[in-house]
Design a protein that fits this description.
Blueprint lengths: L2 E6 L6 H10 L23 H13 L17 H13 L2 E5 L7 H8 L3 E7 L2 H19 L7 H4 L3 H19 L4 E5 H5 L4 H9 L19 E3 H5 L3 H15 L12 E3 L6 H13 L24 H9 L8 H14 L4 H13 L3 H13 L5 H13 L3 H14 L4 H13 L3 H15 L3 H13 L3 H8 L7 H14 L1 H16 L4 H8 L6 H18 L2
Parallel strand pairs: 1-2, 1-3, 3-4, 5-6
Helix pairs in contact: 3-4, 5-7, 5-26, 7-11, 12-25, 13-15, 14-15, 15-16, 16-17, 17-18, 17-19, 18-19, 19-20, 20-21, 21-22, 21-23, 22-23, 23-24
Length: 543
């Protein structure tokens, strides 16, 4: 008999460490697991094929993991059924963990039938949002990326609305399918809730209940900033609290005290505010004003621009701000004014690809090539498009074409290996990585990708053996070794991570970056929250 377990819970609800626990107890959580990071030091335990299918379902509805009921979800279960078939071919009991699964539980239930069980982990909205903002702000403060995503501060209630959308679906599913669910709070998990015994008894799994739980309370954030609460309306908080109380009423395991805990942050130091204000004064956008492609009204003006100006505009275009009608207008403008310009058709193909219009992109790449604008990179992009359409044979053909035309491009090998991995061709993927290292040499990006591949299959000892055989002086290779230490020696890995980040950002103009990052943050409470978080992240790197 096949038995399958879906581990569901909103982002930052401790589903990763729960999936880790399941894995250690004998549950196969996948063959291509997402690597760990500073945000999940012990690993995510998310199977990439499952993550990709959820991302595809979300993309089909013009949304992402930040879904907050801003669009209807038009989900279908056929790709879920294909995934289940492939997992059933390999294992009699297996699991899947991905926060996005919360949005598609009815489809999973339909596809699994009586073979499916559901372990649902819930956590109070304030703690989830706090942990999410902590992770996102740390990524910003440690990378100083000028294009970093500050959407959670541009829309201060976004994360809370996400929690509400995910958890309302969890609540609805639990009520309709209580017999196939085990529901536990994060706090109950940390206090030793016997979830393994419950899963074995209720669903017939064969999990090792004597395994040591991997829960580490020092890696979990159970308190939330009062600024977070103050940035959310009373009306929204009321709805959030109501859903939380209803979820608690459905729990199999919960603590006596599940009340949220809030803390007040220290006020920002005066010298910090002065430096930030000065940076804001000088952070003026000096870029040349050009017509925006996100405005349909401006599209006809393209015909008045030179080729390089048009290409610059198209490259600055973000699919996240482009609606279908604008893209159609852009297509029409290119057809009308630049029918024989291969460079512009190539740029149009890239935009189509970013929008998920892979069949159109394939046609545009082909047309650009006919017009004489072809180089091996085009073949790689064609391979990516065919991969996204599920056409393995065609994808590999174009990857091989790109590699044969430029055997010194690491990007071509990596893209082919990732394609093979996505089709569960793990041995073939590994051979591509090793072929690339032999052909090009031990370069940091290849090392990082190959180590990610090994870690995705839980081959940690092989990853360490490989890393110790190469020069680890490059920051990228150091980062891979640090991630491995986070898995095997968390305290050592944490110290090494903060030393690396401290060195990376030393001497950089953090306030100039910060002033640029907050340009679109118009809510004063949200701005203060982001400033305080960045200050704390920077202070921690030098301890």
């Amino acid at each position: 008999m096949k038995r399958s377990l879906i581990c569901a819970g909103f982002h930052r609800s401790a589903t990763s460490v729960t999936a880790n626990y399941l894995y250690k107890s004998g549950m196969n959580m996948g063959y291509d697991l997402m690597s760990n990071s500073i945000g999940n030091a012990l690993g995510h335990y998310e199977d990439w094929p499952a993550v990709r299918l959820h991302e595809r379902l979300l993309a089909d509805s013009d949304t992402s993991w930040k879904f907050h009921d801003e669009v209807p979800l038009n989900a279908h279960s056929d790709i879920i059924q294909r995934y289940i078939f492939e997992r059933n071919e390999k294992d009699t009991q297996w699991g899947v963990k991905d926060p996005r699964v919360c949005l598609f539980l009815p489809q999973w239930k339909q596809a699994l039938g009586d073979d499916g069980a559901f372990l649902i982990v819930i956590r109070h909205w304030s703690s989830c949002v706090e942990s999410l903002l902590h992770r996102e702000s740390r990524n910003l403060a440690h990378s100083l990326n000028p294009d970093g995503d500050v959407s959670f501060w541009e829309s201060p209630d976004l994360a809370a609305k996400m929690w509400l959308s995910y958890n309302k679906r969890l609540l609805s599913f639990i009520r309709a399918n209580k017999s196939c669910c085990v529901v536990v709070t994060q706090r109950a998990l940390l206090q030793g809730a016997p979830i393994l015994q419950s899963l074995n008894r209720k669903f017939g799994f064969e999990l090792d209940c004597d395994v040591e739980p991997p829960f580490n309370s020092s890696l979990l954030r159970d308190k939330a900033s009062s600024l977070l609460k103050n940035s959310i309306s009373i009306a929204l908080q009321t709805e959030l609290d109501l859903v939380w109380e209803k979820l608690l009423s459905q729990c199999d395991f919960k603590c006596k005290d599940e009340k949220p805990i809030y803390f007040d942050r220290d006020e920002l130091p005066e010298h910090f505010i002065i430096q930030y204000r000065n940076a804001c004064n000088v952070n003026v956008n000096e870029r040349e004003l050009v017509p925006s492609l996100n405005n349909v009204q401006s599209l006809p003006e393209l015909s008045l621009l030179r080729e390089n100006q048009i290409i610059d505009l198209m490259r600055s275009l973000s699919s996240t701000n482009l609606v279908v009608s604008d893209f159609i207008s852009l297509e029409q403008c290119v057809v009308r004014n630049f029918k024989t310009n291969g460079k512009i058709w190539f740029e149009l193909a890239l935009i189509a690809q970013e929008l998920g219009e892979y069949e159109k992109a394939i046609g545009y790449y082909g047309y650009a090539s006919l017009l004489g604008h072809y180089f091996p990179y085009v073949s790689m992009q064609l391979g990516i498009c065919h991969k996204m359409l599920g056409s393995e044979t065609e994808a590999i053909y174009f990857y091989d074409k790109a590699i044969s035309e430029n055997p010194n491009s690491h990007a071509f090998y990596i893209s082919k290996a990732e394609c093979l991995t996505s089709f569960s061709k793990y041995e073939s993927a590994e051979k591509v990585y090793l072929d690339a290292i032999e052909a090009i040499g031990v370069i940091p990006v290849l090392v990082q990708k190959y180590v990610d591949f090994l870690l995705g299959q839980k081959r940690e000892n092989e990853a360490r053996e490989f890393l110790t055989s190469v020069d680890s002086s490059h920051p990228g290779i150091k980062a891979s070794l640090i991630r491995l230490n986070l898995l095997q020696e968390p305290d050592v890995g944490m110290k090494e991570y903060y030393i690396l980040i401290s060195n990376n950002i030393a001497g950089k103009d953090k306030f100039n970056w910060l002033a640029g990052a907050t340009k679109q943050v118009t809510n004063a409470t949200a701005e203060k929250d982001l400033l305080q978080r960045c200050l704390n992240h920077w202070a921690f790197t030098v301890k």
